Amino acid sequence: AAGVIQSPRHLIKEKRETATLKCYPIPRHDTVYWYQQGPGQDPQFLISFYEKMQSDKGSIPDRFSAQQFSDYHSELNMSSLELGDSALYFCASSGGTGTFSGANVLTFGAGSRLTVL
Amino acid sequence: GQNIDQPTEMTATEGAIVQINCTYQTSGFNGLFWYQQHAGEAPTFLSYNVLDGLEEKGRFSSFLSRSKGYSYLLLKELQMKDSASYLCAVRDGDYKLSFGAGTTVTVRA
Protein backbone atom coordinates (compact mmCIF):
# COMPACT_ATOMS: atom_id res chain seq x y z
CA ALA A 1 0.00 0.00 0.00
CA ALA A 2 1.15 3.53 -0.72
CA GLY A 3 2.58 5.41 2.24
CA VAL A 4 3.41 9.01 3.03
CA ILE A 5 6.46 10.03 1.04
CA GLN A 6 8.84 12.68 2.32
CA SER A 7 11.86 14.24 0.67
CA PRO A 8 14.66 14.79 1.18
CA ARG A 9 15.38 12.20 3.85
CA HIS A 10 18.45 14.10 5.03
CA LEU A 11 19.37 17.75 4.65
CA ILE A 12 22.33 19.72 5.93
CA LYS A 13 22.19 23.52 5.95
CA GLU A 14 24.15 26.42 7.39
CA LYS A 15 22.68 28.95 9.82
CA ARG A 16 20.57 31.62 8.14
CA GLU A 17 20.00 29.46 5.06
CA THR A 18 16.64 28.30 3.74
CA ALA A 19 15.30 24.76 3.49
CA THR A 20 12.23 23.23 1.84
CA LEU A 21 10.78 19.88 2.78
CA LYS A 22 8.25 18.05 0.64
CA CYS A 23 5.49 15.64 1.55
CA TYR A 24 3.28 13.46 -0.62
CA PRO A 25 0.31 12.14 1.39
CA ILE A 26 -1.42 8.82 0.93
CA PRO A 27 -3.73 9.04 -2.10
CA ARG A 28 -7.28 10.19 -1.20
CA HIS A 29 -6.18 11.40 2.24
CA ASP A 30 -7.57 14.89 2.70
CA THR A 31 -5.52 16.16 5.64
CA VAL A 32 -1.78 16.74 5.93
CA TYR A 33 0.10 17.47 9.15
CA TRP A 34 3.64 18.61 9.87
CA TYR A 35 5.41 17.70 13.10
CA GLN A 36 8.87 18.59 14.43
CA GLN A 37 10.70 16.16 16.69
CA GLY A 38 13.90 17.21 18.41
CA PRO A 39 16.36 14.66 19.85
CA GLY A 40 14.69 12.76 22.70
CA GLN A 41 11.54 14.87 22.36
CA ASP A 42 7.96 14.03 21.46
CA PRO A 43 6.64 15.18 18.08
CA GLN A 44 5.47 18.79 18.23
CA PHE A 45 2.60 19.81 15.98
CA LEU A 46 3.46 22.60 13.55
CA ILE A 47 0.62 23.00 11.08
CA SER A 48 -2.06 21.10 9.19
CA PHE A 49 -4.03 21.42 5.96
CA TYR A 50 -7.45 20.11 5.07
CA GLU A 51 -8.37 20.07 1.40
CA LYS A 52 -5.52 22.48 0.60
CA MET A 53 -6.60 25.04 3.21
CA GLN A 54 -4.72 25.60 6.47
CA SER A 55 -6.84 23.92 9.12
CA ASP A 56 -4.81 24.31 12.30
CA LYS A 57 -1.62 25.91 13.51
CA GLY A 58 0.61 24.80 16.36
CA SER A 59 4.00 25.91 17.54
CA ILE A 60 5.28 26.89 14.11
CA PRO A 61 7.82 29.74 14.12
CA ASP A 62 7.11 32.79 11.97
CA ARG A 63 10.24 31.88 9.97
CA PHE A 64 8.44 28.77 8.77
CA SER A 65 5.62 28.60 6.26
CA ALA A 66 3.78 25.77 4.59
CA GLN A 67 1.27 25.19 1.88
CA GLN A 68 -0.63 22.39 0.21
CA PHE A 69 -0.86 22.27 -3.55
CA SER A 70 -3.60 21.21 -5.98
CA ASP A 71 -2.12 17.70 -6.18
CA TYR A 72 -2.33 17.51 -2.35
CA HIS A 73 1.40 17.44 -1.80
CA SER A 74 2.64 19.85 0.85
CA GLU A 75 5.85 21.81 1.35
CA LEU A 76 7.33 23.19 4.55
CA ASN A 77 9.57 26.19 3.96
CA MET A 78 12.03 27.20 6.65
CA SER A 79 14.02 30.41 6.42
CA SER A 80 16.76 32.03 8.52
CA LEU A 81 17.62 28.61 9.89
CA GLU A 82 18.88 28.39 13.45
CA LEU A 83 20.83 25.64 15.20
CA GLY A 84 17.72 24.80 17.20
CA ASP A 85 15.85 23.92 14.02
CA SER A 86 17.89 20.73 13.74
CA ALA A 87 15.31 17.99 14.12
CA LEU A 88 13.33 15.27 12.44
CA TYR A 89 10.41 16.71 10.51
CA PHE A 90 7.51 14.34 10.03
CA CYS A 91 4.65 14.70 7.65
CA ALA A 92 1.50 12.71 8.31
CA SER A 93 -1.78 12.33 6.48
CA SER A 94 -5.25 11.14 7.41
CA GLY A 95 -8.68 10.68 5.88
CA GLY A 96 -9.85 8.52 3.01
CA THR A 97 -12.11 5.51 3.36
CA GLY A 98 -9.82 2.96 4.97
CA THR A 99 -10.48 0.84 8.02
CA PHE A 100 -9.49 3.56 10.43
CA SER A 101 -10.78 6.54 8.49
CA GLY A 102 -13.44 7.17 11.14
CA ALA A 103 -10.76 7.45 13.78
CA ASN A 104 -8.80 9.79 11.54
CA VAL A 105 -5.60 7.89 12.28
CA LEU A 106 -2.48 9.73 11.25
CA THR A 107 -0.07 7.81 9.07
CA PHE A 108 3.45 9.20 9.28
CA GLY A 109 6.12 9.44 6.64
CA ALA A 110 9.68 8.33 7.35
CA GLY A 111 10.70 11.89 8.18
CA SER A 112 13.24 14.40 6.93
CA ARG A 113 16.26 14.91 9.16
CA LEU A 114 17.45 18.51 9.06
CA THR A 115 20.87 19.36 10.45
CA VAL A 116 21.77 23.04 10.80
CA LEU A 117 25.49 23.75 11.20
CA GLY B 1 -2.40 23.42 26.30
CA GLN B 2 -2.53 19.71 26.79
CA ASN B 3 -1.01 17.73 29.63
CA ILE B 4 -0.11 14.15 28.78
CA ASP B 5 2.01 12.15 31.21
CA GLN B 6 3.64 8.78 30.77
CA PRO B 7 6.69 7.14 32.36
CA THR B 8 10.02 7.91 30.76
CA GLU B 9 11.46 4.41 30.72
CA MET B 10 10.51 0.81 31.40
CA THR B 11 12.54 -2.38 31.23
CA ALA B 12 11.18 -5.90 30.93
CA THR B 13 12.31 -9.40 30.06
CA GLU B 14 11.59 -11.18 26.80
CA GLY B 15 8.30 -13.09 27.06
CA ALA B 16 7.02 -10.93 29.90
CA ILE B 17 4.18 -8.38 30.03
CA VAL B 18 4.59 -4.63 30.35
CA GLN B 19 1.90 -2.02 31.00
CA ILE B 20 2.53 1.59 29.99
CA ASN B 21 0.25 4.09 31.69
CA CYS B 22 -0.82 7.43 30.28
CA THR B 23 -2.78 10.15 32.05
CA TYR B 24 -4.09 13.21 30.31
CA GLN B 25 -5.86 16.50 30.88
CA THR B 26 -7.23 18.04 27.72
CA SER B 27 -9.79 20.58 26.61
CA GLY B 28 -12.36 18.13 25.30
CA PHE B 29 -11.64 14.64 24.08
CA ASN B 30 -11.95 12.97 20.71
CA GLY B 31 -9.87 9.85 21.05
CA LEU B 32 -6.61 8.48 22.36
CA PHE B 33 -3.95 6.85 20.22
CA TRP B 34 -0.89 4.75 20.92
CA TYR B 35 2.02 4.87 18.51
CA GLN B 36 5.27 2.88 18.44
CA GLN B 37 8.44 4.63 17.35
CA HIS B 38 11.83 3.05 16.79
CA ALA B 39 14.78 5.43 17.03
CA GLY B 40 15.05 7.69 13.99
CA GLU B 41 11.95 6.21 12.39
CA ALA B 42 8.37 7.37 11.92
CA PRO B 43 5.75 6.69 14.59
CA THR B 44 3.54 3.78 13.57
CA PHE B 45 -0.07 3.43 14.68
CA LEU B 46 -0.84 0.75 17.28
CA SER B 47 -4.29 1.42 18.73
CA TYR B 48 -7.18 3.83 19.07
CA ASN B 49 -9.67 4.24 21.93
CA VAL B 50 -12.55 6.67 22.00
CA LEU B 51 -14.97 4.76 24.28
CA ASP B 52 -14.21 3.35 27.73
CA GLY B 53 -12.92 -0.18 27.81
CA LEU B 54 -10.34 -2.50 26.41
CA GLU B 55 -9.34 -2.84 22.77
CA GLU B 56 -7.36 -5.98 22.03
CA LYS B 57 -5.19 -6.42 18.99
CA GLY B 58 -2.96 -9.45 19.07
CA ARG B 59 -0.18 -9.04 21.61
CA PHE B 60 -1.12 -5.41 22.19
CA SER B 61 -4.15 -4.14 24.12
CA SER B 62 -5.18 -0.63 25.04
CA PHE B 63 -7.55 0.51 27.77
CA LEU B 64 -9.32 3.81 28.26
CA SER B 65 -11.18 5.43 31.14
CA ARG B 66 -12.43 8.85 30.07
CA SER B 67 -13.70 9.80 33.51
CA LYS B 68 -10.23 9.22 34.97
CA GLY B 69 -8.31 10.67 32.03
CA TYR B 70 -6.35 7.43 31.95
CA SER B 71 -5.19 4.88 29.43
CA TYR B 72 -2.74 2.04 29.35
CA LEU B 73 -1.03 0.05 26.64
CA LEU B 74 -0.41 -3.59 27.48
CA LEU B 75 2.31 -5.45 25.64
CA LYS B 76 2.23 -9.22 26.09
CA GLU B 77 4.77 -11.92 25.21
CA LEU B 78 7.44 -9.28 24.77
CA GLN B 79 9.89 -9.73 21.94
CA MET B 80 13.23 -8.03 21.41
CA LYS B 81 11.78 -6.11 18.46
CA ASP B 82 9.30 -4.46 20.85
CA SER B 83 12.15 -2.34 22.22
CA ALA B 84 11.03 1.12 21.14
CA SER B 85 9.44 4.32 22.32
CA TYR B 86 5.67 4.20 22.87
CA LEU B 87 3.83 7.47 22.42
CA CYS B 88 0.45 8.26 23.93
CA ALA B 89 -1.41 10.86 21.86
CA VAL B 90 -4.71 12.56 22.62
CA ARG B 91 -7.05 14.37 20.26
CA ASP B 92 -8.72 17.28 22.02
CA GLY B 93 -12.07 18.98 21.51
CA ASP B 94 -10.65 20.94 18.57
CA TYR B 95 -9.41 17.70 16.98
CA LYS B 96 -5.79 18.69 17.57
CA LEU B 97 -3.53 15.70 18.27
CA SER B 98 -0.90 16.14 20.97
CA PHE B 99 1.75 13.64 21.95
CA GLY B 100 3.16 12.66 25.29
CA ALA B 101 6.93 12.54 25.71
CA GLY B 102 6.97 8.80 25.07
CA THR B 103 7.99 5.77 27.12
CA THR B 104 11.17 3.98 26.11
CA VAL B 105 10.72 0.25 26.57
CA THR B 106 13.83 -1.91 26.69
CA VAL B 107 13.35 -5.65 26.32
CA ARG B 108 16.16 -7.76 27.77
CA ALA B 109 16.90 -11.38 26.89
Q: Mind sketching the topology for me?
A:
The complex is a heterodimer of chains A (117) and B (109).
Chain A: E1 5-7, E2 10-13, E3 19-24, E4 31-37, E5 44-50, E6 53-57, E7 64-68, E8 74-78, E9 87-94, E10 107-108, E11 112-116
Parallel strand pairs in A: 2-11
Antiparallel strand pairs in A: 1-3, 3-8, 4-5, 4-9, 5-6, 7-8, 9-10, 9-11
Chain B: E1 3-5, E2 9-13, E3 18-25, E4 32-37, E5 44-49, E6 53-57, E7 60-65, E8 70-75, E9 84-91, E10 97-99, E11 103-108
Describe this structure in words.
The complex is a heterodimer of chains A (117) and B (109). Chain A is an all-beta fold and 117 residues long. Chain A contains no helices and 11 strands. Chain A starts with a strand and ends with a strand. The mean pLDDT of chain A is 90. Helix content of chain B is 0%, strand content 57%. Chain B is built from no helices and 11 strands. With 109 residues, chain B is an all-beta fold. The termini of chain B are far apart. The chains are: A mainly beta (117), B mainly beta (109). Chains A and B meet through strand 10 of A and strand 5 and strand 10 of B.
> What integer value in Å does the Rg of chain B equal?
13 Å
What does the average pLDDT of chain A come to? 90
Q: How many helix segments of chain A?
A: 0
Q: In one word, what is the shape of chain A? A: globular
Give helix % range of chain B: under 10%
Percent strand of chain B: over 45%
Q: Note poorly predicted spans of chain B.
A: none
Task: Please describe the structure with a list of short key phrases separated by commas or semicolons.
heterodimer; A: 117 residues; mainly beta; seven-stranded mixed beta sheet; four-stranded antiparallel beta sheet; 49% strand; globular; B: 109 residues; six-stranded mixed beta sheet; 11 strands
